[in-house]
Specification:
The complex is a heterodimer. Chain A is α/β, with parallel strands linked by helices. Chain A is 42% helix and 12% strand. In chain A, strands 3-2-1-5-4 form a five-stranded mixed sheet, sandwiched between helices. In chain A, α4 runs parallel beside α6, α12 runs antiparallel to α15 and α13 runs antiparallel to α14. By secondary structure, chain B is of the alpha+beta class. Chain B has a single domain, classed as Alpha-Beta Plaits, CATH 3.30.70.20. Helix content of chain B is 21%, strand content 24%. In chain B, β2 and β3 form a beta hairpin. The radius of gyration of chain B is 13 Å and the shape is elongated. The chains are: A alpha/beta, B alpha+beta. Chains A and B meet through α13 and α14 of A and loops of B.
Chain lengths: 424, 84
């Protein structure tokens, strides 16, 4: 049994190679005579994929649905390029993910567990594959486990796109007007949960809600994985208790302790000004600055970099990652990137571009089938407020030194067709 | 025909953005409810309209029937809205 107040929890025993099934049971042994549904409700676990939806509500909704072939879909797609938490989780103990998925399958009465990993992460695929085979050799009881490997795209990790892939081999998000919407694999309802959420469910099923609540705050209990990148000594994944001051997380990751800003949540997240780094890392404190924990990305922007330029790079990449199904996203995001370009390089009427950018943000928001455009707009708006002084300088034609000698701080995958980006 | 029914409740015009290709027919048929952005895609009013507002309901129906991609739908709810 792991001590309740100690970290790491889900990354326990990550020395060298992933834990085998026998090691996993040795490390995480403990009483399992809980009413798991009750414990899940008391634990207050929220989804770790970005939306922070209460897991209990989701499980309870799916439990009441009819269907004789329900499934649990484990989302380990790692859509965010700056996030590496599923990599770290699968490298530490893949059996924890599988166990959590089995617990969830038992709760909703699912017959199959579908684990989705991007095929571009071969290490994660191998680790999970090995764990699944190990588990199958042990016993054939419970839900069947399958590994699915969709190709990696930013939007392919969105839950409806994932289910669409499982049904029709197309990683495209779906239009879901009714709320709450229930996703279906085949004809039966499916519960889609992030891999880190599954690992936490496994811990709650083993040790109970009281143990789980020993870390974290009242409103967001437990621990979370933070992918730290940018101006750090070395990009790492840390497991931190929710509510830890951001300064402590930066210190633990050997990061720049006086950053200009932090990118929180992911590429569809928000910038947090460097003066707020004493804020506790939990949604209820970060929401004061419009930020959130999101998918656990924390990218550090050093003082010498240009925040506007980094935002432009992210927006340009995100525009290219649009699935191009909805007009406002397919045409709007390249237009936002174009406006940001002329602001960043003080060319082609930057003041007009600034006003156009704001009106375009208002007109695009909430008009896509998925939340992809909304995420980009959240990022752009937070950049406009956090880097307001910088942008004023850019507009009057004095771009900062970071633009003259571009040094790429945030790691973004290279665009495949950079010249084809603006397609009209 | 000829029967006037007092309707309670409200409706919202909804567009499926995936199906929508920006033909713009809905803006022509229901300009009170649908605005168009700079790329020709509809911006549909999100606040619910009372069902007793028969003029708006009729133009919403025209828009639904006139959409070449059948991307529009009328969503009814029982929440009453004060008619303008």
């Amino acid at each position: 049994m792991i001590d309740a107040g100690s970290l790491p929890r889900v990354l326990h025993g990550s020395e060298g190679r992933p834990l085998s099934l026998a090691q996993h049971e040795e490390v995480f042994n403990g009483a399992t005579s809980f009413n798991v549904m009750h414990e899940l409700e008391n634990s207050g676990l929220t989804g770790r994929g970005g939306a922070a939806f209460p897991t209990f509500k989701k499980v309870d909704l799916l439990r009441l649905q009819r269907g004789n072939n329900k499934s649990v879909v484990v989302n380990a797609m790692e859509g965010e390029p700056a996030a590496h938490k599923e990599f770290a989780l699968a490298a530490a103990n893949p059996h924890l993910i599988l166990e959590g998925a089995q617990v969830l399958a038992g709760l909703i009465g699912a017959k199959q567990i579908l684990i989705c990993v991007a095929r571009d992460n071969p290490t994660v695929v191998n680790n999970l594959n090995r764990a699944i085979h190990e588990l199958e050799r042990r016993s054939l009881r419970g839900a069947s486990i399958e590994l699915h490997t969709p190709p990696w795209r930013y939007v392919a990790g969105e839950e409806s796109a994932l289910v669409h892939w499982l049904n029709d081999n197309e990683s495209l998000p779906q239009y879901r007007p009714e709320r709450p919407s229930i996703l279906r694999v085949g004809r039966s309802p499916a519960l889609v949960d992030n891999a880190e959420t599954c690992a936490n469910v496994a811990l709650i099923a083993r040790f109970g809600a009281e143990w789980f609540r020993k870390l974290g705050t009242e409103k967001s209990p437990g621990s979370t994985l933070v992918s730290l990148s940018g101006a750090v000594e070395r990009s790492t994944v840390l497991e931190v208790s929710l509510g830890t001051p951001i300064r402590d997380i930066l210190a633990a990751g050997h990061a720049d302790m006086a950053p200009q800003a932090l990118l929180l949540g992911g590429f569809g997240g928000t910038w947090l000004h460097g003066q707020h780094i004493d804020t506790p890392y939990a949604n209820e404190y970060l929401s004061e600055f419009g930020a959130g924990v999101g998918a656990g990305v924390m990218a550090v922007l050093p003082r010498e970099a240009c925040g506007v330029y980094e935002t432009l790079r992210i927006v340009r990449w995100m525009a290219n990652e649009s699935a191009r199904q909805c007009g406002p996203c397919a045409f709007g995001l390249p237009a936002l990137a174009e406006d940001l370009t002329s602001i960043t390089h003080s060319s082609k009427d930057p003041r007009g571009a600034y006003e156009r950018l704001q009106s375009r943000c208002d007109s695009i928001e909430g008009r896509g089938a998925c939340r992809h455009p909304d995420g980009v707009i959240r990022l752009v708006r937070s950049a406009l407020s956090v880097f307001a002084d910088d942008i004023a300088q850019h507009i009057v034609g004095r771009p900062c030194s970071g633009t003259q000698r571009p040094k790429h701080t945030i790691a973004i995958p290279t665009l495949e067709h950079e010249d084809e980006l603006i397609w009209e | 025909m000829g029967v006037v029914r007092k309707r309670s409740g409200s409706f919202v015009l909804k567009v499926n953005p995936i199906l929508c290709d920006g033909f713009g027919h809905c803006h022509e048929l229901a300009p009170e409810l649908v605005d168009v952005d700079e790329w020709g895609y509809p911006i549909v009013a999100t606040e619910p309209v009372s069902l007793s507002n028969s003029g708006l309901l009729q133009s919403a129906r025209y828009a639904v029937r006139g959409c070449p991609r059948q991307a529009l739908s009328i969503e009814r709810s029982n929440d009453t809205v004060k008619p303008q």
